[in-house]
Batch of 4 targets.
Target 1
Amino acid sequence: MKLKSIKSWQIVCASLLLLAASYGIVRACAGGDWDESYSSNYTPEVFVADTTQTPFFYTWLFYYQIGFDTEHNERFNSTNVADWSKYLKGSVDKPSLEYLLNKANSKAIGQLVAFFDGKVLPDSLKRKAKGISRNNPQHKDFIYYLMYAKKCEQYAVYYNYYWDDKRTLPSRSDMGNIEESLRNGFEKSSDQFLKERYWFQLVRYYYFYDWDRCTYTFESNKLKFSPSTMYYRAMSYAAGAYYAMDRYVIANYYYSRIYDGCNQLKVVAHSSFHPQNESDWQQTLELCQNNEERITLWHLLGINYADEVRSMKEIYKMSSYSTKLDLLLTRFVNKQEIGTPYSQNTDSAKKAIEQDIRWCQQVANEGKTSNPFLWDVSAGYLSFLIGDYQKSAHYYQKAAKGTPNNDLAKSQLRLLTLLTNIKLLPKITPANEQSLLADLQWLYKLSDKNVDTRFRYYNAQSWVKKELAQKYEAQGDAVKAECFSSSTAFYSSNSNIEKMKAYFQNAKPNAYDKFCMGMSEKKLVDLWEYQAIRAAYSDSLSNAIALMQNVGETSTLLGNPFIGRKNDCHDCDHMAPQKVKYTKMSFLKKMKDLETAVAAGTNVHANAFMLGNAFYNMSHYGNARAFYEGGVITAGQSSPYYIPTEFAAMLTSNKMAMKYYQIAFKRATNNEQKAKCLFMMAKCERNEWYNTTLYSNRENEYNYDSNSPDFIQWNSFKLLKGYKNTKFYKEIINECGYFRKSVVG
């Protein structure tokens, strides 16, 4: 069987595999900040409590939550302090150790070396190195070791990101006698603690300058030390040297040992683990001393090559109770839900997935694992993902009998059970509604509670609303469907709106009805306001005012809606000083006053012209879009292309504006007034031409032929040519390019 291709990120970062994993120096790729909680219902933390496994949960990132491993220089800081504190029996306080190990430069350490040779220690350094005494031989050994360790940082510590520049190592001659000093320290030290550290430094030195000596120094001395953090750090350099010499078999074996033996090196060992093919993989397996080592290798392979089920099968044969199965199973489940949906796979891929899922179900049925709850819940959710809801419910019932006594596990099972229960409903009856109510209330109040931040429930909140909406829509209950998932199509029918108003105004709603009303994005006042807006666009101003009165206080418009501009610039109008600020209600009342005056024959030209401006400005092209923006028609529609189809005709129409500009033109008393009316009428004609030519087809946003005309000889432009002697004509021909082209043409 061939190994699957390694992850693309490992190929991209291949140049730093040795660096990042073997000696923990290079600060690798910098990560992103994505979050699976918005596309997943399955929380892996429920099932894998070991936090050292967390970075390996299935993720879009290189590593779950952390993105990239960037702790290479600081990874062992606290461990080193703790180890030396124990070795020195607490004779040097931890702040001083932290300074000496992690912050002090070579000059400071040199002053301490001189101190042990009889020199006076500077006062500033005394304060930073409290407890260091000439009378303590361990202190002298510590400081002399530090002198060499600090020098090693010249080649062993790299502070730049790998893409910033190419790294140049100091030559061996530049390093002076450091090799001899480290070897002497290793060979002459009788203290096992110091001896191991000098060994580590020597192995690391040879990694940079002599790969053969690196592996030899490790191999010839490894039996002298018990496995420890320092032991695995030395092994990582030996593994890196083997890898650099293309000896992948032993390199990958060592990486698996490091992964299993040193939690701090788990991520870097994983990132370097890279079997080349099936042959070297089998050879690596042959190096294992026992099944536990083989299990670790299969565990790593399952993570690296995204073939979790193959690895789980092999591990299960060796030890069905191995906890290394747990991470692989959570990865497999998350991959099925977050990756390509089952329905979008090819038939052959579906069959392969179904086979893998059947194996997981079989393991759950056998119940011979260390975490039966994980296997039962996972079998249930995998069954859900392929549409086998009856089997999903069966596994959840089984899982309920062994749910761990913690909130996260209980919440996970409750969430997934709710999803399956909803899918199992052929129709939602009143009895079903009452049975679902408690779980629905729980789900949508989670954000208000002190819920575990790791719990993934956002996706379920979205999914449940859409699923319930679809079921209600299918059974003809458009109002409840709208409560769960809003659709602009719903508001194209006034009958729908009236039904929803009646639902909201029910004098005796039951608990489920109250829940539905609470779930609805639209509230009763939004419906009243939307009906008022619709009435205004149809020139039914009295009705609009009556409807708007049910809304209560209305928002303020940003510009003066009764002025007309030569060029459309709502931002300009919003910034202009305004003597009167209009709300939606006062705007309607002012329009009604103007309409009454026109009907009565009072100052018809001026009042009709202001009404034309009002209707123009409350369209998408004017300065009062805020009039129609609200709970139903939302804000942010910067172009007619983005206006929902159901609202587009109403919001882009200038029919009513045209009506009142024509009245104003007929009752004008001079040519200046007539010229202004004609120009505003031309703007209405222009907008209607846009509506029918461009905005009627949303594909035109990107595909409209740039060679097509962007204006035509609108009738009002033709008539405006007859007013050449007016001041307004001269202003327009200078300001309006369309009109200037029309005249020249």
Note: The two ends are 76 Å apart (CA to CA).
Target 2
Amino acid sequence: MAAVATTPEYNSLPTDEAELKACLRDPNWRIRNLYKVKNKQKRIVPFRPNEAQERFLRTFWYRNVIPKARQRGFSTLIQLLALDMALFLPGSDAGVIAQDLDTAMEIFSSKIKLAYDHLPNIIKEMVPVTSSTLTSITFGNGSKVRIGTSMRGGTPNFVHVSEFGKISAKYPDKAREVLTGTIPAVPDDGLVFIESTAEGRDGAFYNLASEAKADADSGRKLTPLDFRLHFASWWDAKEYELDPEGVVITEKDHKYFDGIEAKIKRKISLRKRAWYVTVRRKTFGGDQQMMFQEYPSTFDEAFSVSMEGTYYAEQIAQARKDGRFKEHIPVMPGVACFTFWDIGNSDGTAIWVIQKIGMEWRCIRFKEGWGEPYSHFARWLQGLGLTFDTHFLPHDADHERQGETTNKSPREMLEGLLPGHRFEVVPRIEEINWGIQHTRDVFSMLWFDETECKDGIIHIENYRRKWNERQACWSAVPDKTGGHSEAADGLRQFAQAHQAGLININRGSTKRKRTGSWRTN
């Protein structure tokens, strides 16, 4: 697809009719000279693309996904492109999707309608408004721009989804509708823009951006239906600078910036470093995790843990700071392992394999599955070649009846599948939030193998409260619909077993043979 912009052209509106018509046929000229926006100081000014916007104008594709830092101007630019298409391509149907109706109406009034209202009169006479509401505007050339929380009906040829990360996190059904209903309705030569700050390594926005990144990394030629990745950080924004005099930048901060420089292959000036640490302190109270989310330095940083609504974001951030997430943790031979399970009738099964070395509880393996029999997990454990001490099961393992051909409890079935293994049931805790707090309390003892436990880590990063759509707030109970609760509940069995003093590490397990099963001497 040809780029919209080539070189900046900032001119006044031509007075000669022939020259004006020539300029209006050129989208490069129009986007730089026709429109006005409200800047950060709330003043209405001519739109002039910044560096990131210029780069985007040169490289955008039919389908585009944009993980970004805050206030880089992508939302404004894309909405101007929507208006421009509606004005100069008769019969266009442009739609903007926002996370909630209030946000949608604010976008419409402060960007799209403002830009049209401040057009030169001659343009408004050429393309007059025939109808206008709080969420839509229709023009005399048959085009329209509409905005809302979904885009049902019609066949839009331009779609902008704003803050899709938040939509994915809070309204997964809406996110699914965007992916399965709205975007497929856009013709192959239409335009789709999906932009957002990130909300953790989970959900539709993360999946879409990750696939686009994989395509970018591989160099694969994109089809019009593939998404092109556009990542916008904070360090290439000219305005994100501050006089470093009086700003305390620690040795640890400099080490972080030096590491980012090595990754991005460019320098981060002292003025930019001063801006970053000041925003972290003044805006986010020193919370590094919020900087990762709102002002990411890299793609991976953008999709690190989102704090909003999650149970363990603070503990995970501290663990990463302490270096307790490792690419690989070696298994110590001759040292028995413990397993901690979550099982259920309709829910999935999740197992953490943890080995204690000194004061460290090392999460070295993770397994999950839905609709699999217990024999599937028993074979996996036997195939690991590890020595096991005790398997800790949730409270209902002694009385739940699963399957139509047996009246055995889960514990009895597992004992039959793994003869000689020791099983213990963790007592029920009446209030799940107590168990969650126990998990927070013991988190400082945990180490994680990021390779072998990748899926489990993503689950506990994204284990969060259920969103109450009616009251627009996070509820007090966990969300069981996202597929994260099984892994989190399995890890909670470790915390509750530890809290209850059930884990006995003095049974002489180091003397047992490394056979893959625990047997009494």
Note: The first helix runs from residue 17 to 24.
Target 3
Amino acid sequence: MKCPRNNPSRFPHQWYQPGEILIGGIVTHVGCDFQIIPFQQQSDQDYKCETILLTKFYQHILALVFAIYEINENPRILSNVTLGFHIFDSTTVQKWIYRITLDLLLTTHELVPNYKCGTQKNMLSYGSFESNVDDPTGHPSFYRTFPKEALQYEGIVQLLQHFMWKWIGLITMDDERGDRFLQTLEPMLSRNGICAAFTEKAARQVRWDDIDFLTNYLDNSIGNFLDSKANAIILYGETATMMWLATIFFMPTILNNLYGTAYVERTSAYVERTSAGKVWIATAQVDFAFTLLQKAFDIQIFHGALSFSILSKDPQGFRAFLQLLKPSSAKGNGFIKDFWEQLFDCALPGFVNPEGSCKTCTEEERLETVPAPFFEMSMTDHSYSIYNAVYAIAHALHLFASSRTKNRAMDNQGSLASLNVQSWKLHSLLQRIAFNNTVGEEVAFNEHGELEGGFDITNLVTFPNNSYVRVKIGRLEPQVSLRKRIIIHEDRIQWNRHLPQVPPSSQCNDNCMPGYSRKKKEGEKFCCYSCDRCPEGKISDKEDMDYCITCSEGHYPNQGQDQCLPKTANFLSFPEPMGIILAFTALSFSLITALVFMSFIKHQDTPIVKANNRNLTYILLISLFLCFLCSLLFIGQPNEVTCLFRQMTFTTVFCVAVSSVLAKTVTVVVAFMASKPGNLFRKWVGKQLAYYIVISCCFFQISICTFWLGYSPPFQDIDTHSLRREFIVQCNEGSVTMFYCALGYIGFLATVCFIVAFLARNLPDSFNEAKFITFSMLVFCSVWLSFVPTYLSTKGKDMVSVEIFSILASSAGLLGCIFFPKCYIILLRPELNRREQLIRKRHYIL
């Protein structure tokens, strides 16, 4: 400062008149909140402290005065009683408390105490204190117009979670409160997946005379939080934390001024690094205030900072009260002289200026022109807390005075001379007091003496003239559920201009994108990780997932493995190409079989048709016709009816066809054997033998199917696991054993038929079909032997296609091998369809 400072002990020794009521328990900061230690202290005798008034905090005193002024003017509160106050400093350094408080409050040069011992035990604070103060046993009458401290911790965690800031920095003062803050917050951060990249403790003293110390201090301080990937940094402690941080940022310039241009190269790197954008998150205890020695500091580095603050409003008339404030009109207010001179860098008239180099204050200076870091015209949240504290005491005293109407002591003029309230009585009143202040907000205390209420979340918007405004961008409500306590309006936030993106990211490393999962890095905090691709069949649909997950039933991972897509139904449908081909083939063969049957009906009296049991031939053709048609039951979406009957129909009809072929083969053998004189087979010759064979063989197959239906029938089923992108709509065969029993029985009949036909292929009979049957059974058995492994190795509609193909191929083999030669003669060589052409010379094998 340019102007010399006069002895502050000229202030009046108290700011209340005799006979007025003393409010002895409102704690506030008025004096030595920031000390500059030019050189290292060698001993207590060498101790020197230049007290710099933190001008912004002078509003705390003015808020207290304004509240008392309103109460004294309000006839509904403590009528006929005039309030006054003492001021006590709450700084933690005892020798500063002693020296500065007495200097500010005494009128003489002698250090004579002017306060009552023990008043600190009847406190009502506007700020938060250590947790041990919450103990009702040690501090039974301690109240504070500050919400629950734990609520602010929850708000910090939820704010970080809202913006997904998981790699953050912590800056506190180097004291017990800072340690307690870290001990409380860090476990909460860890439980919510947030890590502290660094923890910086702000030093209260800096040795400006030691350049090596300053260089190392810059390396250790700036290096920690400006080179870190942590873009979100939490500030806790008090306003001195903010002033320390501003000094760190401006320190390179200070060093250049102290040590000349030779230091420019060493500090240029620091200047470049301090231009990096960060998001500063300040707790409600921290105010963006600076001393006038920091007037040249550029506060743009704090643009976009987020801050918790006590819910507050501007009382009506407070701005007008400040506008009327002038040193000459503030009688009895000794603080205003030092405040005014430091704020406007001038000397008030009537005080000697030895150097004669300082301008004189005109008292026309306007507080509205002062930048916000040094004084605000709107009531700050801390001043608002003091304002409410005064009203809380006044309302408690009013209740006490109202209860003493019969016994209160009156002076000769009928006014209340004094009101000596014992602490325990005031304590009992404050416990249950609740009132609406002048702006309509309710003031009440909980069981721990804390203010019932939440916090505002504000955004610091700075201007080129180093002023700023706070914009409310959210709230922290204690009455709602934990997950919904914080409300953020992101569209109202103005971020730091140097941030690479908004909202900014604050991560140890880039997020693991969907499709990847996090993998812990050995030896590092859990917030630092690598990203691994999800294994086959699993996905991660969010960023930074700890592990990949399996899709729910009916869904499958997409190619990027970042989402689950619904599976499509897999079944052999009529519209698809394979369904069309198989259906067309089945209908074509059915039509051919029908035409063959019609041809045989038309030429039923010819030798070719009559040979080897004409009725058995008709049964075979009808069964083949049904075999081709039953394949259509396998096409289309399976349902309960088709699943129940398609395998039963197929195995039964095929059993009839194979049984008919077997009967034809046996008939040939029996006819040949019966042609020998005296052979026992003569009595078996006839149509009844063939019918017995067909009926008995089919009866056994029907028995298998009946037992199958009764024991474990087929049913509609959905297979969601076999195929990656589709779910299979299929028919579950129920009992697989019965299914293969039915197929095995048909295979057994076909094998017997093949063996008998093969042995009888060269019998000298004019009506011998054994050679054709041998080829047909060879095709039939080949098809179904290849069917089994192919069927078991396929899934879904491919499995159904294999079965349909086997049905069509085996049926076509029977139709072609047995009936193609006959149809050739009937239709193309009718001259051969005569008895004399078909009778051949028989050769007997003896």
Note: The mean pLDDT is 76.
Target 4
Amino acid sequence: MSAHISFDPLLPWPVVIALAVLTLLPCLLALGTRRRGGLLRLAGFALLVLILAGPRWVEHSARPLPDVALVLVDQSPSMEIGARREMAARALAALRASAGQTDATRLIVAGIPPATSGGTQILPALHQALANIEPDQLAGIIAITDGEITDAAGLPRNAPFSALLTGSGEETDRELRLDNAPSFGLAGQTVPLRLSVFDHGVNDAGTTVPVTVTEDGQTVATVAAVVGQPLSVNLPVRHAGPAVISASAPPLAGEVSVINDQAAFTLTGIHKRLNVLLVSGSPNQGERAWRLLLKSDPAVQLVHFTILRMPGEPLDADPRDIALVPFPVRELFETDITKFDLIILDQFNANDLLPAEYLANIAAYVENGGALLAEVGPEFAGPESLAGSPLGPILPAIPAAPGTVTQEFPPLITPLGARHPVTASFAGAKLAPWGRMEAATPTPGSLVLMTGADDLPLLVLGRAGKGRTGILLSDQLWLWTRGGAHAGPALPLLRGLVHWFLHEPALEAEALTATIAHDRLSIDRRTLSPSYPGDATITDPDGQSRIVPLTQTAPGRYTATLPLKKNTGVWKIGEGGKTAYAVAAPDNAAEYQDLAATASKLRGAAHNIVWLGRDPAPALGPLLTHRHATQITGTASQPLLPPLPALLIALALITAAWWRENGASA
């Protein structure tokens, strides 16, 4: 119980103060001049002012409140290392047991959740927990952590802070850090990769450490890195599409974890602008469609020539007057042919349009890794057919009876085409009809993706040496560009063909790819085989493998998705001799920079530091400061001066002062 005097004025305080000044000041002056009755007058008016102030005697009854101990448990990924999680659980159980032995202390437990960036941060969880705790009851803050706290400098000082560290003492750790990891690069060129090696908890700055850089599991560089100093590596971009790049350093002797001894990322190779040469054998209705389709792809740089006359054909005018751009035959097909990524021959025949040696140059260009697409019309069935030229051996189809077929037919996607990435996107769709095509027989090993009239091959793809070839056995692709009832997937078809010719990974028919997003691994297997390709073998960053079945989601398309427990490292997926890699990058990269348990970041902020790996968990009492907080349960008050008796006494004093002053003067 506690008691004190409070005031409940009968008039507003400014009025009471003004009356006190007006009445007591003259009394003090009279007392200073030793006038008779001055002391009685001062006492009387002082009592009147005191009555107006309304003094009261207030008594409070209260009950003691328990002290509150706030315990913050680190839940960041670094707490999964070794026995840290078990140490934390034992320490928390000991604190709960200690708090349960007395009613004088209440334990509040809150977690320090994983952050998305910036390492482990204690302040957000601390402030959220303190919002529900009375400051007068907070007896102490206890953190169960590995000590890797990035915002310890901001810890409050109004209560003792204790750190229970999940380790046996200061630990060491090696970190390989990617300072600048490129996301994209031009295929065939190099990009700079900057990395650094840091050794935490040990002073070995200047030591040389070998670092191995791999691309999709294949070593591309081995370099010597100086601990604590940045290193630059020129990384080759070997192909278009994604590649998993991993850099790793050997473990540091005695380090706590090897998780951050390696770092990985995905490098996507991109083509520069693709140089496409389009040569039309004669002016035709499809020329404009070809130009529009090819120019609609921003990745394509188009060079187009139309042969308007036969070589040696007599002219009625000077060639300079009728030729805007002379056809640079020698430059294109002798010296500059390798500058093109794809050559398209549009309704081209071998009737001396190009000398045979230039056609042979095209064939050699394809066999050395180039690409050729031929769109043919009635000339393909005639004596000047490309099949009878030096290009014949590399074409994926040869003419067959009855030659040119003139009847309306809807192009159809074959079962093989439904599995091939070039045509799979519009398999099963009703396609607008064409009216003419060339009968042909596919060569061994070629792929028929589309058929036309009488189930004859319409689109055939093949390979020649290191290169790729294709033939469209109709000159009416342009019908699909007219719109209306004739609209068709001309642009998707042509774009798919162009990028397939250029070995774009996304257009490969036999492929195994894997990606990681939102802690889930997704596997995609594409195949031309109609049968099940086989189960996938998944190897995690620790080298442990398991078998995962694939589920068919479309013709020639098999997938699998599974959750990941580890959120960092390189995963390897294998199936049927094919291998894919996927990289899981941690959401909070700073969390994995230094994995060593340490007290260095909490010194100056923590009043007590306990290593749980070598010392028993302390009792709760020594970590807290008793706050003696109470809660008011009742209040009683009564006036110190009963108004009527006090008023009579004051009047009596004032009357006595007047009588004494007047009596003395008489």
Note: The first helix runs from residue 13 to 32.
